[in-house]
Structure formats: structure tokens, C-alpha cells
Amino acid sequence: MSNPNHRTVAALVFPEFELLDLYGPLEIYAMLPERFEIHIVTEHAGTVAGRGGPRIVVDDTFSDGRPYDLLLVPGGPGTRREVDNPVLSGWLREAAARAELVTSVCTGAALLARAGLLDGRKATTNKMAWDWATAQGPEVDWQARARWVEDGDIFTAAGVSAGIDMTLAVIARLTDQKTAEDVARMAEYDWHRDPGWDPFAEMAGLAPQAPSRT
Amino acid sequence: MSNPNHRTVAALVFPEFELLDLYGPLEIYAMLPERFEIHIVTEHAGTVAGRGGPRIVVDDTFSDGRPYDLLLVPGGPGTRREVDNPVLSGWLREAAARAELVTSVCTGAALLARAGLLDGRKATTNKMAWDWATAQGPEVDWQARARWVEDGDIFTAAGVSAGIDMTLAVIARLTDQKTAEDVARMAEYDWHRDPGWDPFAEMAGLAPQAPSRT
What we know:
The structure is a homodimer.
Chain A: E1 7-12, H1 19-30, E2 36-42, E3 47-49, E4 55-57, E5 60-61, E6 70-73, H2 79-82, H3 86-98, E7 101-104, H4 108-114, E8 122-123, H5 130-135, E9 141-142, E10 148-151, E11 154-157, H6 162-174, H7 177-186, H8 199-203
Parallel strand pairs in A: 1-2, 1-6, 2-5, 6-7, 7-11, 8-9
Antiparallel strand pairs in A: 3-4, 10-11
């Protein structure tokens, strides 16, 4: 059982993770330092380069076997390789079983799907990588029009910046709406509070606005 | 003169920089890897911890004396200390003199102001730290209602997430509008294209919507 006043966040990284997928949510948690403690977690100790080159220092490795209250799984070009990494999939399953909430951003949902964590669940992912990402989870109830999806203890966000909106919703669930509103204002972020807000679904040719007449 | 097809971006870091101030803009540059090359720059080699703890690896130090085409100066709690760092101010002046564009996010503008780079210029900063930040530059023409301000070769953004909007405007200026729109879509980011959009000025009690009757 999590301590409701102090939770640990495991932020998964791997080569070529998408920068904003990770740091958008981490900005939100970092604004509440008394409530959330961030750990950067990956397979091997050392540093990991995100998309575009910036390198992050690893805090914990999978083999440390630590439990965490929240998991944050980013997407990015590196997911195309990591979906086939059984060590990463195995860690996701073990860590998810011990976590209060599991969250993903963008194609991070493909990693959750391949680990079997989304089977039978509603979930979403990046609209610009829809076909590839959804093919990683044939048993997932994929939602094409969604900024993010909350299904029980799993939150999945759409592409990149959607992780910020989702994380504010996580904050609202774990604390209260006012705290989430305060954080959004401190970040001067135009929070999309409606998880159904998703103009990018249309842009990608998914989920047309008007119902079809078939 | 910059190579218009390949520019270097110096992303300044210091202890307790604000994560999203840095990584929001870097996400945008990282989406155009053939055009922008990111360097993480600070005073001393090694690693630097941002707000909330995540550590970044330094690529270049001030003493390397490298020129860069673009400068990115984030804000964050650490700016309260760094405004009094003459080594950082000196590097900012030298690097700015050789750069094509200088950009700041949030209280990063206080660092530019204390380096004298904003004197006589229009600029903006975080609305939630307005009094402190603007006091760092009495000769600056501070704009209270602004998502970002473009004054010649200097772009300054409001708080935290405003850096993403500003950087998309930088992309539009350096390349073309379509490229900026494409990047915003890839990031599934609701780009505020109007630099005058700023609900946070009102929330902070600055720049009331209706003109006063004095």
C-alpha cells in the first residue's frame, strides 16, 4: 500500500526515448517534491541518451528489484527495439504488479501492450504511430479518439505532450483537483481537462468527428 | 553566419533548472535532427541535477569557448543563485554575441537580464515569479501579457510550458510555417500561435483584460 503523502515514481528510460514523453510528466511530479520522489530506471547502470542526444543519469536498474508506487513509461523511436526486449517486458510486469498506478505516454503503450499489461483494457497511444503501436496489442481495446485513457490502475496518454495532461489527471486522482489546477498554473500549462479532447485523431485520419452513415 | 541547414543549440543547465523549460524546447529541436544539433552546456564538467532530481550529462563547459547558433536559457529555482554567478553571466554575454538567436524560458529571462542582454528590449518571463524576475532588469521593457516576446534576435517565453510555443515560433522563423506546424502535430501539441495569448497574466493579477479608466 502506498503512503498517500509520499510516492515513488519509476521513470523508465531506454536509448532514444522521447524527451517530452518523460520530462513533461516529470515536471508535474517535480512541482510536488514533498509528495513524489523520482527514480530514473533502466536495464543497465550509467547514462542513457534520449532522442536528439541529451543523456540522463540512471538512478536504479531493473536488477535492483525495487518496488515503486507509480510507473512512467515513455515512448520514442527506441520503443521499436525495446518491444522485443524480454528483460524490459519482464521488469514491466513485475513492477506493474507491485505499483499503485501504471502510466504510459505515446508509444510507451506499445511496451505495456507487449508486456501483456493492456490485454482487455481500454488504452490509447500516439495517433501519428497508430498502426504500428496498436499492432503490438491485438487484445487491447484501443481508443482512437482520446487525449488519455484511464482504465482502473492504468493510464495511457496519446502522443508526446499528452503526457502532461494525463499526469495532471493522475495528480487530481491521487490528491485533489485543486492541487492539479495549482500545478497547471505554476507550469503556465493550458491543461486539456477533457480526456476526449483530441484534434490529432482527425489529423491522422482516425475517428472522424461526424459519425459515418453506414 | 549560421549554416541555415544545420544549427547548433547550446542548452544551458545549472543545478535546479526547471525540467520542462529545457526539455520542452529540446523536444522540438530533437524532432528536426538534420537541422539542429543539441549541446548541453554548463560551468563544470560532469552531471547537473534539475528540479526534482533527474540528472543530465554535460556535453560542453563554458571554458571550451565554443560558438553556438542558438542559445536556450531555462529558468527554475536555481536561477535565484545563478543571477549572482559572474562566470555564467560572462559566458552568456560572450555566447550571445556570437549567436544568431538567444532564447529564454521562464525565469531564464532573469539570467539574461542580469547579464545586461535585455536592456532596452521587450521581454517577458514567468507570471508566477514576476516581481522577482523583472527586478533583475530595471532597464528591460517587460511585457506582462505575453506567451512569448520576439525582439530582434532575442526570444523570451513566459513560464515553463510557454517555451514550447516559443520554440515552434523560432522554428517557423528559421525554417517555415509548415515545418513548425508539422512538428507541433508530431508532438500532438496544441500550439498557441498567438504570442499575445496569456490567461496566466490575469491569474497572477497582472495585465487585466479590460483597460483601466485612469
